[in-house]
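From: lab user (bench 3)
To: helpdesk
Subject: output format question, protein + pyridoxal-5'-phosphate

Hello, I'm new to running complex predictions and I'm not sure whether the block I got back is the full result or only part of it. Here's what I submitted:
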Amino acid sequence: MKTAERLHRIKPSPSTAAAQRVRELKSQGLTILDLTVGEPDFDTPDHVKAAAIRAIEAGETKYTPVNGTSTLRAAIAGKLRERHGLEFTDGRITVGGGAKQVIFLALMATLDEGDEVIVPAPYWVSYPDMVRANDGTPVIVDCPESDGFKLTPERLAAAVTERTRWIVLNTPGNPTGSAYTTGELRALARVLLAHPHVGVLTDEIYDEIWYGDQDAPSLAAVEPRLADRVFLTNGVSKTYAMTGWRIGYGVGPADLVTAINTLQSQTSSCPSSVSQAAAAAALTGPQDFVQDTVRVYRARRDETAKLVNDVPQLSCTIPDGGFYLLVNCRAAIGKFTPAGTRIENDEDFALHLLDSQQVAVIHGTAYGAPGYFRISFATSTDVLTEACERIATACAALT
Ligand code: PLP
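Helpdesk reply: Thanks, we reran it on our side. This is the complete output you should expect:
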């Protein structure tokens, strides 16, 4: 079947591709230590599952409003009020099949051919391809480790053109774990206030997997003058270990939300009714699951970062949030494996880890971060410890 031109501009998500490769190797009988996973290794909390079962039994198994049930929209409004002091009326909230779908529809609703979207790198793999799939042009702005992998006001100002439609701000970020401070958001906001044609798509999916003393700040709350230009996206996948339930949301300008709802009405009609009941229970129910899992993630983060930083060729900064480490492996590039193969780049390095030690990671170039690789610590401490030992062995074997 002939496929559309827009499909040729994009590729399958590398994390999905890596997961597929791990499954293949496992099916060949190999034991792979898998550090590629982009989802919590915990089960969805019981009270959330119970809410879904109750919804099924109560017959909540039909189409819901296009923009989600009023119960879930109220729960989302409640979270944003409580956490950030933000007030969103009902017409400014939409619910979709994961934050991924909400972001995709926001881009579909707003981009015309040639419109530019500023994507700070390292970036979540999907942003550039989502922009391309919707006829836009991603403008990648490198944010080096020396800047904490964060966009500076100077780099932002230099990247804005008349065609800039959006800037994507993922905080805390995947794959870096870096988060913008209130001061940093204010500085970016000052630049944005001077460019009223630029919208800001914030992706705050890791906001609760957060290791700071105070809540991760949100741009919409930090600079209310941007309120009619910020589209804030989030969801329940990461915070509540609900990746398979597929519920995410976006809040922002009413006209954008209406446009997204129109697109949703012609694509999925609405998100899953049962999953929406579960998501509402997650947002409004007890939050000890979040505190407990963050405590576990924090211990894993500290332990894994220490083990990584003990390996002479590797280094990583400690992330503020999320469950990833972005590891600098530049010192290993240019070296040779025992088989005599030269490690040309981060992809070769990741392949060396997989082939020689059966440790699966994702190479940094997939995230616009050449010279790095991503470790997910959403897996057990035993796996992480063993994997780090094997990574050290793989590095020691390089000459
Ligand atoms: N945004 C970022 C930065 C992510 O890492 C992910 C998942 O990997 C998503 C969005 C997608 O979340 P959802 O499961 O809600 O579609």
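A quick orientation on your result: Residues 5-43+289-396 form a domain with the Aspartate Aminotransferase, domain 1 fold (CATH 3.90.1150.10). Let us know if anything else is unclear.
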